[in-house]
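hey m, so remember when u said the tokens were messed up on ur end? i reran from scratch. heres the input so u can diff it against urs
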Amino acid sequence: MPLELSFMEEDDIPAFAVIDSAAMANWGVAKAMDMANTTGEPRQQMVERWTRRGFQNDSQQVWLKVTDTESSDLVAAALWRFRPEGVPENPPPRLGADSARAGKGDGQTHPVPNVMSAMGRIGDAFNKEFIGEQPHAHLSILVTDPKYQRRGAASMLVRWGCEEADKRGMVANLMATQAGLSLYLKHGFRVVSETPLDLRPFGVDETELRRGMVRPAKVKCES
């Protein structure tokens, strides 16, 4: 099953949403994001809508995919953001579930899950303390089809971003789950902050440890 890395295209979004749903099925935050029982919008549909809007409106996004060349199936994907201007000193406020955002062209408004606001506050505090106004590369999303995990697909996606950040002289950063921690350490990231996120207010009886990780530019990635 030879794997090939390339840039993701808008036509790949439905396939990405499917593998994202499979990869995140047991993640507490993903469960907290699913609003099927409240607004009627399942998380997979929400992810597809958000991804499509990002493709259309966010020039800082770089979407990558890994494809199984034998089947042509999309088996892993990542979203990197390259921010030459750094993080604004006073970022705009995050939207909560009581605020509605319209999906482009669908004629509907869609509440944002409250857990996203809670995660955003943790992310903002991390950025303020460790990133600030320095140019940086941010790994926002990394997912692999469970059938293809531990075959190197995720490492290909992380390595590409590391190398691109090095070319641009940028620090790289991310928020890591336990599942991805060893991979990120392998690629030169180090944990600099840990913040517990209680998911019980969002209907999930779990606590998610949000690990902020930073990788200085020009750190050699392990093979």
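this time it looks ok to me. The chain is about 30% helix and 30% strand. if urs says something different then somethings off w ur setup not the seq
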